[in-house]
Amino acid sequence: MNSLLKLLSTAIALLSILSFSFLHPTHFLGWKALMSSQQVADLVVRNGVIYTGDDSLPFAESMAVANGRVVRVGNHSYVQELASYGTEVLDLGGKVVVPGFIDSHVHFIPGGLQMMQVDLTGVNKKDEFIRRIKDAAQSTKRGSWILGGGWNNDLWGGDLPAASWIDDFTPYNPVWLSRTDGHMGLANSVALMLCGVTNLTADPSEGTIKRTPDGEPTGLLIESAMSLVMSQIPEDSVDNRREALLRASNLALERGVTTVVDMGRYYSGTSANLSWEDFTDVYQWADSMSKMKVRVCLFFPMETWSRLVHVINKMGYALSEWVYIGGVKAFADGSLGSNSALFYEPYVDDPNNYGQQLIESEALFNMALESDLSGLQIAIHAIGDKANDLILDTYGSVASTNGPRDRRFRIEHAQHLAMGAPHRFGKQWVIASMQPDHLLNDADTARKKLGKDRADNGSYLFRSLLENNALVAFGSDWPVADINPLSGIKTAMRRQPPTWENAWIPSECISLDDAIKAYTISAARASFLDNDLGSLSPGKLADFVILTTHSWEEFAESASASIAATYISGVRAYP
Question: Measured between alpha carbons, how far is 398 from 381 in angstroms, rounded to an integer?
Fold first, then answer.
């Protein structure tokens, strides 16, 4: 009789836990972790310094993984209880482990495609720029496009390239070379002629055709003017885009990145359909064929918000443990390097130019209002101080109109902020999605374009945002900057450009703990992924990175380490 009563009480207890979990879905992972704690581990990681990213247990010696998820973290004897015959044991030899890095802002397919084109990243001499195009022309058949990108004129002194630099050796090939920021590009004369861009062509709305003093196009196209050429470039094949995903994924894993937030092939002046084509042709295909190697969270052009709502209603926010739906993205302004970021005061090197607002305020508010009312997360690109205030105002109006909910509004880049803006980020619960490595080139550029006082008082305010309780998520904006979280972490801690002896705005340096959180748990929260990712907590997916360093203290002091191995779901993915 007593055994029957015990059995009945156990059944009632389990039923109550199960029903509670279904009534409160956010607690389901906790229940799963409770059940998983009784499982035999597939993998035990031991003898290391495991930074969990979980404030309830910041560091651990060992970790157990079962069915791709963390089931236990703690000291060796506690974790070893789950080991059995067949459990793989990974001895770290004292190395440091961190959660898998989340890059909060990439253009994944464009980055992979650029790996197959002319790479102008880091070129710091005009002659080298010309040589690379000349070499490409010699190996390209007549009539085919020569495509490339990554150039940054600030690296060779600031002179903007022109079609005349490359026309002599590209007489039979159209050329298009995008600037590193994606807000400006160079076309040769063949491409301009092919696309009908002449001295009679008017500047499109929110775009500029750079011209010589006598009105002839130089070959440089800014913002929406880029579409005059880009719309005529043959579409990348499905096979090339799938190959781009593979190349991008392999590079990400090499750098310790296990999840990316992909803003897609959506730049100012490009078609809103490109991101959707990649969704169906590349991501859904790769997911269905079990070819995904890195987790992705996808954002789509805000003008297509109703289409995204339809997809979510049909498929949900998670297509699998590899492909997640993020939300919608729009542009408020351009970039600093292209003099199209929107500021309250004019550019020092262009006194009549305040930058460009790329969408009319009322149109932006209406799209944001409808997107938010449909439950979508919104991310808006803003670099200049006026653009950031514009978006903070827009977000405040949307929230006031639609009422309270967990929105997690994002501002992508948040590079240059007016006085009081960090406080507004925290007060309005707006996420600052930032890219630390951008400041390595922008330090000199910002002073030239904004003046020292403006540049040094409002640029890359990491610490000010954190001290005002804003959530800061880090990324790379790859291929604008390298996809390399360890470099971004060092930059956020040191803020020292390559040719500088001291930090740029040292008061804005942050700690190792804050920098890693911006690439892990804060990045996960910034995309509603924190139930599954961002920390090595029981119940979460076992994505982690082994570093070469053996000391957390030395890591914090030197801000330097390398990737030894990358694991996804407890399985080694690199090397």
Answer: 17
